[in-house]
Write a structure and sequence with these properties.
Layout (H helix, E strand, L loop, with lengths): L1 E6 L6 H4 L2 H8 L4 E6 L12 E2 L9 E2 L1 H14 L7 E11 L2 H7 L4 E6 L7 H6 L3 E4 L9 H12 L32 E2 L2 E2 L9 H19 L1 H7 L5
Parallel strand pairs: 1-2, 1-6, 5-6, 5-7
Antiparallel strand pairs: 3-4, 8-9
């Protein structure tokens, strides 16, 4: 997978892209991540990427020219992939879910545009962007943090990135269920004991217990997921 990120603050990404699973995925050649400073694609000496909104109003709006120029440059460098999916990170987008992440992870080339200020020129949405993604119903200073969240979410879905390929099958939100309770050594800590079933060695019983606990936890914490799954939460 190739992920290109267009931002006016490329320096924000280093701590995330150069640590943990993303760093390992890059070193293995599983993903290539490029950062593009939007100011490099402006035409004026002040490298201006924003301007006042037509019709009046508070704040500034991101100009279309540098964004189009940056995307055109990226496309010209990508000869192996004919079609790229261009994603705008913004509050108005589709809410990011595990299902959405799995769909996006099937793309070989993603271009992420980090929004800023009061918004982005509508011509970018209408004639350039493939889809818009939001990480929640709240407003952030810009699209950089959502882009980092999306990248982290996508990279771990790339085959061969995680050490245990089966771990993806037992995570929260798989099958619209939260993950079952997890325990590790010691078996007794401050007189608090691990459930005996997990020490039994009976894998069928353990699997059954985990399914029941996952359903119980989901009913308690995220009953809305059960509605989506078509299961009564009563």
């Amino acid at each position: 997978m190739r992920i290109d990120i267009i931002t006016i603050f490329p320096g924000m990404f280093a701590p995330v892209l150069n640590e943990s699973i993303i760093k390992r995925a890059k070193s293995k050649g599983k993903v290539k991540i490029n950062l593009y400073d939007l100011r490099d694609y402006t035409l004026d000496k002040h490298r201006k990427v924003d301007d006042r909104p037509f019709g009046g109003g508070s704040g500034m709006v991101m100009r279309p020219e540098p964004i189009f120029r940056a995307v055109e440059k990226i496309k010209s460098q990508s000869h192996k992939v004919r079609k790229q999916k261009i994603v705008l990170l913004c509050p108005q987008g589709e809410r990011l879910t595990q299902k959405t992440a799995k769909r996006l992870a099937k793309n070989k080339h993603l271009i992420l545009i980090c929004g800023r200020y009061e918004g982005i020129d509508e011509r970018v949405r209408q004639h350039l962007v493939s889809e818009e993604i939001s990480i929640g119903d709240y407003v952030l200073t810009g699209g950089e943090l959502p882009a980092m969240v999306l990248v982290d979410c996508l990279v771990r879905l790339i085959p061969g990135v995680l050490g245990d390929k089966n771990s993806l099958n037992f995570e929260s939100f798989e099958g619209n269920l939260l993950e079952y309770p997890q325990y590790t050594r010691p078996a007794v800590f401050k007189r608090l004991r691990v459930p005996e079933i997990l020490l039994s060695g009976d894998h069928k019983k353990i699997e059954s217990w985990r399914k029941k606990e996952a359903l119980k936890r989901t009913k308690q914490k995220r009953p809305d997921l059960l509605n989506e799954r078509g299961v009564s939460n009563g």
